[in-house]
């Protein structure tokens, strides 16, 4: 099914509702801590402004409880967006209502309004029809550039679209679909998946799906502990999903039968506490009873890097350890550098921590595509139909 590009839509002089993903971290002083998601949608926003659209930008931020909460106001986001655009951005005092309606009605060609946090209204996540109709009343044309929310059937990503005359995808959304779709088609081999993060339960579906397509899987993070214990290793006080050990054994057996090697950590960086200022590198067999595995060790990093150097297609999602703690971030940074070093491979990195590691390591120019969607990219690669994308098809 075809999805129209924003470039094909007759936006000149029209009210364009642009759904973006500005769910960004804020500083204690209420500034934007990381504007990567805002910058990712700038090409679409600037293209619409340059063509004289009357732009209504909408996003959620955080998890307010279905009502206004100053802690989750989009005000700092609007300030940062105005700085990046070099022009005024008018923030409404509510996502829908008389105040928002007047701001939208008063827009002129090339002007930008930012609706207050969509989740300040319970109708957003409930995909409520009345709320969807209210949002649609602000628009002649609907454009979705929020890939990170495409796996959610909310009012602003699905419900309102049927009430708007024309619809299409923003430049970021189209880029996400283009690159992630390559992973579902015929890819160059070897195809290696690197999967990390905390829980097997969060990612077993994508692991199962990937195991049917990849040549090798590299697994790190706390989820590797569950697989290691399923193999009989003693993990001390490491985080392990005890109730998922049978599932882990079943998955490893399936991969073995398919001839898909699953590489797990050979050594780890351990400590007795998450608050430790430094860790101890140790072989798995020498992990003490009071220690936790909190990162993959340097021997494992070298082994993973050797595998990644031979790959022609790479998908990476999830950190290799407790990435937010400097003492346990070396494994994640090591994998980031290894993925980026292979310039011959198609490399796609998804998930906030993985993307952050690539950027902090200064190697983002070595990655084919950094996905802005964590859960959305996983579900796409799993082969699921994402409601926010399906709603754009015509």
The helix-and-strand class reads: alpha/beta
Largest sheet data:
6 strands, parallel
The topology string of helices and strands comes to EHHEHEHEHEEHEHEHHEEEEHEHEHEHH
Distance between the termini: 6 Å
Regarding quaternary structure, what we see is: single chain
Number of domains: 2
Relevant CATH superfamily of the largest domain: Phosphoglycerate kinase, N-terminal domain
**Share of residues in strands:** 15-25%
Structural summary, described in words:
The chain is of the alpha/beta class and 394 residues long. The chain folds into two domains: 6-175, Rossmann fold (3-Layer(aba) Sandwich), CATH 3.40.50; 183-381, Phosphoglycerate kinase, N-terminal domain (Rossmann fold). 34% of the residues lie in helices and 15% in strands. The chain has 14 helices and 15 strands. The protein has helices spanning 36-40, 42-50, 75-85, 98-105, 129-136, 171-182, 200-211, 222-230, 245-258, 298-309, 330-341, 352-360, 375-382, 387-390; strands at residues 15-19, 54-58, 90-91, 112-114, 141-144, 166-169, 191-195, 216-219, 262-263, 267-271, 280-283, 292-296, 313-317, 346-350, 369-370. Strands 3-4-2-1-5-6 form a six-stranded parallel beta sheet. Strands 9-8-7-13-14-15 form a six-stranded parallel beta sheet, with helices on both faces. It has a three-stranded antiparallel beta sheet with strand order 11-10-12. Helix 11 crosses helix 12 (352-360). The chain is elongated and about 70 Å long. The relative contact order is 0.13.
């Amino acid at each position: 099914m075809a999805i129209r590009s924003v470039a094909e839509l007759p936006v000149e002089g029209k009210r364009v509702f642009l759904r973006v993903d500005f769910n960004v971290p804020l500083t204690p002083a209420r500034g934007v801590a990381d504007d990567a998601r805002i910058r990712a949608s700038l090409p679409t926003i600037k293209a619409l402004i340059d063509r004289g659209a009357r732009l209504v930008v909408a996003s959620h931020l955080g998890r307010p409880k279905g009502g206004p909460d100053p802690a989750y106001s989009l005000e700092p986001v609007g300030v940062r967006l105005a700085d990046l655009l070099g022009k005024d951005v008018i923030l409404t005092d509510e996502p829908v209502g008389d105040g928002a309606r007047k701001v939208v009605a008063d827009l002129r060609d090339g002007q930008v309004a930012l609706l207050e946090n969509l989740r300040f209204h319970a109708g957003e996540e409930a995909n409520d029809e009345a709320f969807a109709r209210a949002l649609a009343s602000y628009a002649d044309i609907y454009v979705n550039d929020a890939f990170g929310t495409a796996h959610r059937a909310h009012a602003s990503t699905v419900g309102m679209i049927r009430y708007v005359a024309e619809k299409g995808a923003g430049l970021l959304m189209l880029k996400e679909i283009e690159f992630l779709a390559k992973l579902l088609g015929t890819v160059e081999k070897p195809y290696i998946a690197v999967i990390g993060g905390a829980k097997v339960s969060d990612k077993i579906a994508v692991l199962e799906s990937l195991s049917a397509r990849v040549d090798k899987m590299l697994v790190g993070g706390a989820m590797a502990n569950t697989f290691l214990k399923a193999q009989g290793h003693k993990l001390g006080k490491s985080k392990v999903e005890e109730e998922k050990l049978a599932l882990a054994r079943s998955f490893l057996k399936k991969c073995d039968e398919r001839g898909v090697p699953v590489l797990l950590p050979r050594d780890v960086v351990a400590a007795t506490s998450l608050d430790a200022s430094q860790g101890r590198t140790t072989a798995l067999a020498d992990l003490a009873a009071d220690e936790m595995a909190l990162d993959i060790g340097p021997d494992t990093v070298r082994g993973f890097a050797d595998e990644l150097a031979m790959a022609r297609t790479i998908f990476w999602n999830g950190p290799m350890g407790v990435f937010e703690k400097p003492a346990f971030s070396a494994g994640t940074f090591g994998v980031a550098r290894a993925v980026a070093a292979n310039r011959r491979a198609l490399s796609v990195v998804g998930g906030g921590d993985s993307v952050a590691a690539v950027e902090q390591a200064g190697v983002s120019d070595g990655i084919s595509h950094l996905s802005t969607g964590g859960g959305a990219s996983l579900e796409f690669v799993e082969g699921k139909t994402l409601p926010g994308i399906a709603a754009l098809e015509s």
